Amino acid sequence: MSTNKTFTLAVVPGDGIGPEVTTEALKVLDAVAAQHGVTFERTEYDLGARRWHATGETLPDAELESIRGHDAILLGAIGDPTVPSGTLERGLLLKLRFTLDHYVNLRPSKIYPSVGSPLANPGEVDFVVVREGTEGPYVGNGGALRVGTPAEIATEVSVNTAYGVERVVRDAFARAQARPRKKLTLVHKNNVLVYAGHLWKRTVDAVAKEFPEITVDYLHVDAATIFLVTDPARFDVIVTDNLFGDIITDLAAAISGGIGLAASANINPDRTAPSMFEPVHGSAPDIAGQQKADPTAAILSAALLCDHLGLTEAAAAIEAAVTADIEERTGAARTTAEIGDAIAKRALG
Amino acid sequence: MSTNKTFTLAVVPGDGIGPEVTTEALKVLDAVAAQHGVTFERTEYDLGARRWHATGETLPDAELESIRGHDAILLGAIGDPTVPSGTLERGLLLKLRFTLDHYVNLRPSKIYPSVGSPLANPGEVDFVVVREGTEGPYVGNGGALRVGTPAEIATEVSVNTAYGVERVVRDAFARAQARPRKKLTLVHKNNVLVYAGHLWKRTVDAVAKEFPEITVDYLHVDAATIFLVTDPARFDVIVTDNLFGDIITDLAAAISGGIGLAASANINPDRTAPSMFEPVHGSAPDIAGQQKADPTAAILSAALLCDHLGLTEAAAAIEAAVTADIEERTGAARTTAEIGDAIAKRALG
Ligand SMILES: CC(C)[C@H](C(=O)O)[C@@H](O)C(=O)O
Ligand SMILES: CC(C)[C@H](C(=O)O)[C@@H](O)C(=O)O
């Protein structure tokens, strides 16, 4: 291929290990770009804890609009213990996801035989969680009264709409349809959260009629965590709400080789705004700046980015390079940059 | 001991495997009762799916008041696929927990060496989750508009009060103080659910000042699920909200010998109403009525019941009998009644 196409990337390295893993993801992207005849033109945004301490800003409107002008966003990690919890998460990360309408938060889980799992007998794990990204308990529609007094009351409102649920459920069915096992599991808690839960259940039942080949089942979120450790191989596509998706994808990452390998894509399927690609892991401030972080999740997120931009071969090259690297891991410690170098080299073929 | 004291028990066998496991729990209770000079006077309540189909009732006020007149409640399991999801859970189980102010939902997890775990290297697991039982997303303060139309909106409101959070946090600290490791972990999601999460965090920080010996830490719920599979031995006492507690206690049960062993106590520590004891597992309709269910969780819940009533020796006898039974499990299939018989016999000494 030599299309010589240029893609613009907004890069938000963020906090903690974010900058280190982002550097490696960009290294790998550049390696495959050259080979697949594309160029990634990058704009880096200084957002996160440092910026907040310096200016009090999390994501000014002008920068949000500037980011919006790109083809895709690559993000490292957001969150820092020196900033009040929630400030950067709500004011930056979730603001991006919500404003850019990233309603499909895609998180694949796969067990690489050589990596091992904390599970004794994980079986063949290869599933993807389609986590709703713009509704649910994440909307920020809460409040508090009489804060700091014995009469304090704090609420959090989960907002769920037919509009929001149907579009992500359709996306999940389409993904299940494209996979060999053609299975979809709805995860919710409709025996307690009856209003939201029944909306989700009714929507899945309705859309299922259009996908007669798909086997559909339902699990309460508590039961889903059990199966994720006793029989994770049963899952193919999971569709779930924003909060349940957050919880089960960390668990899914933990059972399948660890959070160091878990990639994610915040997708706007309608392409009315750029999609955003980031590792599932957090900013891990305890190991930040020490070249101890595994950049693989960030690199795999870059593969998802290529895929989203239609660079199927580049995506496959990155994934193959990661798989090869993982399969030859000996347990010997490597720096973040060494892992990035090794994968970039392999991606070049 | 020969106090010859009589305790009144309200028994709600419920749905699915509930009646079978409850029969065994009562068998074991009667066995130890005789030996410890107490009598359990039982009133059985026909509540659950059968009753709802027959009369449309879940928990009439008169029966709730009758149940309230007892010293303790023993419950099997609630929920049935022939009844709209949520009807029995909200109308019966949660109605009992909320009306009788069961604000401490206690769920111990322990790995018995002989039982094994889906984890390859679980380590020494012995922790207890103190799950809040009367607030959070479980309050039922949701609603839906334009149901069944493309404009449907469904909300769920999580309600959290200083009153409700402080009392359960105090209970958790007192439990941590009584344990050798003296460690307490708050699990929440205060980087997203900032109003509720900060109330929880501030409350734990404030109460911690009165317990200088306790080591306190905080984990987001997603990170907590990771540690529950990578390093569950790190936990001692976990305190968390109603929904997060639901999720992580199923996971905790799964990693420590399975849901067949997980007991729970719904405690009203102020003793203004009877506390309720039930296995963590659900009604498992797929195996109901087949003598396939493991009654151990129900039996261990009966031990928690004895403990709550001050029958410390009876509780210890049941626990010892269960431990002995578990340690000699060979993997050969036994009926529900056979397991109950074996444990009852051992409990007699
Ligand atoms: C950092 C945090 C706000 C975020 C989330 O809860 O979505 C993270 O846990 C994730 O899963 O991407
Ligand atoms: C049956 C259901 C309502 C209940 C809950 O969610 O609390 C159960 O899962 C439990 O953990 O006791």
UniProtKB/TrEMBL annotation, chains A, B:
Homodimer. Belongs to the isocitrate and isopropylmalate dehydrogenases family. LeuB type 2 subfamily. It comes from Kribbella steppae. The gene is leuB. NCBIfam families: PRK03437.1. It catalyses: (2R,3S)-3-isopropylmalate + NAD(+) = 4-methyl-2-oxopentanoate + CO2 + NADH. Binds 1 Mg(2+) or Mn(2+) ion per subunit. Its EC number is 1.1.1.85. Catalyzes the oxidation of 3-carboxy-2-hydroxy-4-methylpentanoate (3-isopropylmalate) to 3-carboxy-4-methyl-2-oxopentanoate. The product decarboxylates to 4-methyl-2 oxopentanoate. This is 3-isopropylmalate dehydrogenase.
